[in-house]
Amino acid sequence: MKKWIKDSVKLVLFLALGAFFVWFSVKDLSPEQRSDILTHAVGALQGHNNWIFLILCLAICFLSVVFRALRSVLMIEPLGHKISKTNSYHAVTICYLANLAFPRLGEVLRCTILQQYEKVPLQKSLGTIVTERIIDLFIFAILLVAVFFLESDKLLQIFSENDAYNKFTAMLSGTGKYIALGVGLLIVLIIYLLRKKIAQIALFQKIMKIIRGFWEGLVSVRKIRKPFLFIFYSVMIWVCYYFAFYTCIFLFPSLTALGSAALMASLTCLAIGAVGFMVAQGGLGAYPLLVSSVLLLYGIKAEEGLAIGWVAWTFETLLYLITGVVSLIILSRQKTVKNKEE
Q: Taking a C-beta distance cutoff of 8 angstroms, is the pair 304, 81 a contact?
């Protein structure tokens, strides 16, 4: 199958998945509730002095892009290439823009831009991007574990209302837990005895290759000349994500009324909502749905939760669109001027 056909199929599937999440988030709502989503969203944009928080949200999102570009400079430096911070920024913004259209196209374009404007070999820059993704995944995992630890009571409410979960926990009570422990030990023993045969299975080899790549990516950070600055940039990217969402809370009176609980609610929305960007193209549909599900645990109505999810998603996506297009224009003008000089 030709590459463009594969890419088109991927795009259609991701967009279809996003459309499904949009439908799933409103299918059980009445027409009045659906209308309330739009009312809450429009009200947030038209509220008194709310434009201040909107601009602040965009500014914080923009800072996350800048931190990612600066981190990229640090990662490429050990490879023998000192790239321009400006071109690194343009490469990141165009990466975000392209990923809104086609899955993983942005990474390829980002490497291509660095090769064209900074003479960085494609393979080397692609390796650093893979390492970046591994580092971000590592930070996300820490964040997710922290949220489940700090808000376990609220998050377990989601499962406690599920009949299958209740049956499972009841099965593990009393002698059930000893049976489960015995079965677990038996499985471990079987795996140990058959470890050589398991190691020859293609799926197992692929899984181990992914794990080794994950580890090599983490270890490669040691080669960075300014490790503390690298850690600072990596943490600040996620700090910006957090405060970008937190500023959106001030657009909605019901969320502002949460008081100090809004701080923890924002952290939980960040951790759970990030999954939406992994399962749907650009987080379309999935991100607002997950944000709404989390805010239900804090007493926020579904339609209000969907409204803040859509507002936060829309402005973040809008920023990526604007900055990406501007970067494309700037780089194209630079190329035109360079060609004329040559």
A: no
